[in-house]
């Protein structure tokens, strides 16, 4: 079950590339994972927490595995694989996404 969520300013995508994320796991570009802003990452308190991200009636369930140091509060950085579930990678940035923590 997912808890009530919030509206995020935007979502972007990144390539984990088989590297270790801030939470300590190795992640691939195709994995359904995400990185959070420093305040939402909360010094790792949200590591491995599940989140449902929505955009224009599409949804993807991701696991928080990384920190996005340059992200503002409400900005979610999705892996390439997760972003593709919501929009074409060429879009780069999607505005008005919603998210809910499990």
TrEMBL record:
Origin: domain of life: Eukaryota
Limits of the RlpA-like protein double-psi beta-barrel domain: 8-95
Entry annotated with the keyword Transcription: no
A Pfam match: DPBB_1
UniProt key word Signal: yes
Alphabetized UniProt keyword annotations: Signal
Name by which UniProt lists this protein: Barwin-like endoglucanase
């Amino acid at each position: 079950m997912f808890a009530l969520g919030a509206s995020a300013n935007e979502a972007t995508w990144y390539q984990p590339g088989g590297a270790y994320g801030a939470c300590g796991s190795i992640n691939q570009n195709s994995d359904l994972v995400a990185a959070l802003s420093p305040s939402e990452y909360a010094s790792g308190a949200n590591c491995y927490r599940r989140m449902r991200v929505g955009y224009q009636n599409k949804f993807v369930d991701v696991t928080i595995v990384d920190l996005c140091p340059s992200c503002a509060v409400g900005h979610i950085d999705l892996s390439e694989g997760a972003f593709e579930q919501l929009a074409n990678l060429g879009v780069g940035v999607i505005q008005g996404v919603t998210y809910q923590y499990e």
